[in-house]
Amino acid sequence: MKVIKVSQVPATDASGRLFTGPVTRQSILMGEQSKQFVVNQINFAKGVRNKFHVHTNDQVLIVTSGKGICVTEKEEVTVFPGDVILFPAGEKHLHGATPDSDFSHIFITGPDNKTTQIEE
Length: 120
What we know:
Layout: E1 12-13, E2 23-29, E3 38-44, E4 53-55, E5 59-66, E6 68-72, E7 76-79, E8 84-87, E9 93-97, E10 103-109, E11 115-117
Antiparallel strand pairs: 1-2, 2-3, 3-10, 4-11, 5-8, 5-10, 6-7, 6-9
């Protein structure tokens, strides 16, 4: 068994062209710790989101703090701590913070996942 306290995992800058502003990442489980899962927490500043993208694997989000949005081509949902979201492989989507709240979620996907950004 391995117990990981997310509060003790260092946050590193993960801002880049996929995001509309500053985000940090806490790498919870990576390839050397699990051969089946990649688990990270992403922390968004108020109003920051990622751009429309798709994954080659399913992606699960577990909201840990704040208020966020999850958007597909068909719907937009406001999400809160404790909510769990599944984006099937290939589904065009985005997620991020609402304008009035920071937002954090844990994401789980496969170690061979590839992300393709669709929105510039």
